[in-house]
Fold this sequence. Notes:
The protein is mostly helical. It has 2 domains: 1-42; 44-116, AhpD-like (Up-down Bundle), CATH 1.20.1290.10. It has 7 helices and no strands. 24% of the residues are buried. The model has no long low-confidence stretch (mean pLDDT 84).
Amino acid sequence: MTRDLKELEGQIGKVPKFFKELTVRDPEMFEMVMKLEGHIWDDGVLTRKTKKLIAIAIAASLRDTHATHAQLIGAANLGITKKEVEEALRVAFLLAGMPAYVYGKAQLDEVMKEGA
Length: 116
């Protein structure tokens, strides 16, 4: 399970504390969630990078600090550029409004430095 958590951190960034605790409290549930997680993030019709950009836009639209930050760290691990994230955030702006864009952009500037 420790290996699974390390792989998950590589994919999504920081793993929430409650999820780490699930490995001890309910290992069977943890395994089911990991299978679902793998199924969702594996490349299919959409690549993992595309899915990550969608996740960033959704997290920014919800103004969820932890999720936005974690998704941005995961994006950097996948080689997603700052310009790609900015474009995804512009889509969020069209659908969720200026606050989602401003919020996402602030998180992006904190996680990814210029030129990335």
